[in-house]
Amino acid sequence: xxxxxxxxxxxxxxxxxxxxxxxxxxxxxxxxxxxxxxxxxxxxxxxxxxxxxxxxxxxxxxxxxxxxxxxxxxxxxxxxxxxxxxxxxxxxxxxxxxxxxxxxxxxxxxxxxxxxxxxxxxxxxxxxxxxxxxxxxxxxxxxxxxxxxxxxxxxxxxxxxxxxxxxxxxxxxxxxxxxxxxxxxxxxxxxxxxxxxxxxxxxxxxxxxxxxxxx
Length: 215
Prior knowledge:
- The chain is α+β, with helices and mostly antiparallel strands.
- The chain has helices at residues 29-42, 86-93, 121-130, 133-141, 151-165; strands at residues 50-56, 62-68, 71-73, 76-82, 96-103, 108-118, 175-189, 197-204, 207-212.
- Strands 1, 2, 3, 4, 5, 6, 7, 8 and 9 form a 9-stranded antiparallel β-sheet that branches.
């Protein structure tokens, strides 16, 4: 017999896995993020590198989608995509964005906000050439975010570019990396009774200002 689905208002969870205290957190938010990301990978949570990317268009209307973090260094967080896509057009009009990681099994959320810039062509070339051949062909085959008549368009494009480039497709000029330069970080750790831990880091001239926020 099928069990009845509970009303949405009755869906609840008590968060009890961990704590987040100022005295135990890093003064540099990127070090804390690197630790949490490593722990998410070690815990084998599904797609720990998946993050929500939020952008705003020229009319101040937001949109979100999932992308994958591919690089992390002292400058910021890097992902790769089609520059002609909807997110690419929005970033061209408004080069500020927000990222969010949600590691459900660890009861953790990380939010990052800042300015976005394209990475150097050489960096995009290096990553593109490291991708599987099918993914490199796919970057040519998909007119991302454009309306197409059916999947057959993608299949035909993939066949066309595979025949054209064989085993050495170059990076498309409309495809490459973006880097978000963090100006604000927020770390959220679930706690019992909805009294969650939230630490916010805001960039200052002298470094990072760390503050606790009410949940």
